[in-house]
Amino acid sequence: MTTFEELGINPQIQRAILELGFENPMPVQEEVIPLMLNKKSDIIALAQTGTGKTAAYGLPLIQEAHPGTKLPRALILCPTRELCLQIAGDLNDYARYIDDLKVLPVYGGSSIETQINALKKGVQIIVATPGRLIDLIDRKAAKLSDVTRVVLDEADEMLNMGFLDSINEILAQVPEGRNTLLFSATMPQEIVGISRKYMTNPREVTIGNRNSGAENVKHLCYTVHAKDKYLVLKRIADFNPDIYGIVFCRTRIETQEIADKLIQDGYNADSLHGDLSQPMRDMVMQKFRHRNIRLLVATDVAARGLDVTDLTHIINYNLPDDPEIYTHRSGRTGRAGKTGISIAIVNLKEKYLIKQIEKKIQKNFQHAAIPKGREICEKQLFHLIDRMEKVEIDHSEIDTYLPVIFKKLEWLEKEEVIKRFVSLQFNKFLDYYRGTSDIKVPDDYGSNRDDGNRRDSKRRDRNRGERDGRGERDRGDRDRGDRDRGDRDSRSDRSDRGDRGDRRDRGDRNDRDRGSERSGGDYTRMFINAGKMDGFNPGSLIEMINSSTSGKKIGIGRIDLMKTFSFFEIESRYAQEISRLLKNKRFGDRKINIGIASEKEEQDRPSKSKTYSRHKH
Q1: CATH class of residue range 509-613
Q2: On the chain, which terminus has fewer CB atoms closer than 10 Å, C or N?
Q3: What is the pLDDT of residue 420?
């Protein structure tokens, strides 16, 4: 088996990585490190997240750095602040025994003055998100004239987030003779375009199959009625007592709602989305990494660049429209040779997405039965017994209390003590699942029931529910026009939760049906330079308008989402005000440009777009 010494890594770095638990190089490291140290060739490395990419390029960059120099020799670009901090932290760990080597993370949400001062003192490696680095270049603080190596980490994610123009602007500041390394989980055409433009005869390193999911991830699919998605999520969590995973939702509003419900129902959960401040995001991530949170409910944008090891499950509360995003989600589990499970909770309208994903990942989903209450109770019971068997006893602490405990329990038989102990921990599951009916799954995909039977089935579904009464359709299906309702109690629950955006997103049927008529009369059609690639959605737009207009009731009509931009209709009397208030705001790392849609923009509009309708928010 190859060693790091055989790859050419020096003793100081070997000492550091050995202390970090690195014993032998991973496949991507065996391939990339020699190419970087010996041949100086441009490299395209295709590998799933969690395969050791950071060390693959990081160890050679540290070894070839020039400690003490003022200007950076290496630049690493990545899509998010979380990944930026993680990469910089890893590099500092690898370089702990190399004196005077400075690695600087550069990202938005932190003091730019602090970063400028650090650059003035001198750094050898910069790890940066594109937006903040451009700000520093514009201020003449970041000088890239001595950079000899540029690494684009998670290049496909940067393109998905709309950073191509920023990458072009940054690379224009780097000498043409630079060495370029591109690391990506997938190889879309945009990556091919970058390689042709910026790389010279690149060597391609592929770990696993190109554009495929991780080999040791099992893909499960639960097909349910939309209103039962949350109940099924709870059953999945209960059926897997050691679950440690991420639940992916489409919108920020839905993400917060699902997290709030899980917390209310006693699960160790929290949310991660764009509305959280950076200190809040850091606090949530710290709790998640320490496993104080077992279920993190997140949007794709918030979770980009998030690297947490040993995740057991990825749960797709909503499937993404782009199969490549599913590849990124599922690749967060099953890392470093371990197994993982990626779960999709879908309704019949989403079955076409399952087929697309199966084609992309070159694997089939296993269509699983929803766990029954008895099965869940059995699983939890034996999990409890296993924990009891394996618990470590501190005899020096516990023995002093035993005489009193024995005296207090001496009237009970051994079997009775065991029953009471088990019941103390286990009654909550028995109480919840006792008497609950199994969740009804939709008829087979090929069902040809007539419309009358379909309506009767929906009425039965509405009158059915589990004891907690929280059957509720998910927000993503609501956006797609699914009007299935939960039971009467679930509607009461929604009205009691306060105005957190539910009523904004709901509207009545007449409002939705009138959405397409609003382009004339009192509504003006607007253009905004944010689209699906940015993680932009109707909830994002509504939140942006709400936060800028101090609670005014502004009518919003149809919303058309395109890949990199969107159109929306708004009451004409507010059109100029909204243009002024939103202009130059930021959505992620993108600066917002907004205005009244011109005829040319309308003509350029793609024929295929996502259309939503909204009422007054």
Answers
A1: alpha beta
A2: N
A3: 86
In 3D space, the residue among 146, 151, 153, 152 whose CA is nearest the CA of residue 124 turns out to be: 146
Query: Collapsing DSSP states into helix, strand and coil, what is residue 261?
Result: helix
Q: Cα–chain-centroid distance for residue 204?
A: 27
Cα separations (Å) of 297 from 228, 524, 531? 18, 36, 22
Instruction: Give me the amino acid identity at 255.
Output: T
- Tell me the pLDDT band of 270, cut-offs 50, 70 and 90: very high
Can you give the C-alpha Rg of the chain in angstroms? 27
Q: Residue 386: how many CB atoms within 10 A of its CB?
A: 12
Cα gap 533→161, rounded to integer Å = 5
pLDDT at 609 over 80: no
CATH superfamily for domain 212-372+438-492 = P-loop containing nucleotide triphosphate hydrolases (3.40.50.300)
Taking a C-beta distance cutoff of 8 angstroms, is the pair 370, 343 a contact? Answer: no
Q: pLDDT at position 143, please?
A: 94
**Which DSSP category does 269 fall into?**
E
% of the chain with per-residue pLDDT over 90: 33
Q: Which helix (H) or strand (E) holds 41?
A: none
In contact, 616 and 567? CB cutoff 8 Å: no
* Measured distance CA(49)–CA(214) in Å, rounded: 9
Closest CA to 115 of 76, 97, 141, 90: 141
pTM of the model: 0.56
Q: Are the C-beta atoms of residues 20 and 92 closer than 8 Å to each other? A: no
Instruction: Please compute the mean of the pLDDT values over residues 355-372 and round it to a whole number.
Output: 90
> Please, where in the chain does CATH 3.30.70.330 lie?
509-613
Torsion angles phi and psi, residue 108, rounded to 5: -75, 160
Q: How far apart are CA 253 and CA 440, in angstroms?
A: 27
Look at domain 4-206 and name its CATH class.
alpha beta
Domain boundaries for CATH 3.40.50.300 within the chain: 4-206, 212-372+438-492
Region 96-120: mean pLDDT is 92
